[in-house]
Amino acid sequence: MRALRRAVLGALVIGTPAALALPANATDAITAGTVGQPSANFWPVLVGINKGSFAVANVDLDVLYAQLSRERAQRLGK
């Protein structure tokens, strides 16, 4: 199930219309984590949020900012 969610998230970020055709019965919650300040690596997620791509796909995105990779991993439960 995580692989499907990641595929949908990736497709939404790059704007693939096929991802929007997937049916959603309930809001899916996804937590995206980044270390330090948002960098160019995280911009696709921020663009997706600003364009409303996640809302259209019925995805509730929670962004987690952490100072250290270890802290991010602990807070994400991995």
Would you kindly provide a written description of the structure presented here, covering whatever features stand out?
This protein has 4 helices and 2 strands. The protein starts with a helix and ends with a helix. 12% of the residues are buried. Strands 1-2 form a two-stranded parallel sheet. By secondary structure, the protein is α+β, with helices and mostly antiparallel strands. The radius of gyration is 13 Å and the shape is globular. The longest helix is centred in the N-terminal third of the chain and has 13 residues.
Please compute the radius of gyration using only Cα atoms.
13 Å
Mean pLDDT: 75
The arrangement of helices and strands along the chain is HEHHEH
Report the end-to-end length measured between terminal Cα atoms: 16 Å
Give the neighbour order of strands across the main sheet. Answer: 1-2
Counted by DSSP, the helix tally is: 4
**Residues in helix, %:** 40-55%
Q: Categorize the overall geometry.
A: globular
- What percentage of amino acids are in beta strands? 15-25%
What ranges have pLDDT less than 50 throughout 5 or more consecutive residues? Answer: 16-20
The beta-strand count equals 2
Structural class per helix/strand content?
alpha+beta
Q: Strand count, sense and closure of the main sheet?
A: 2 strands, parallel
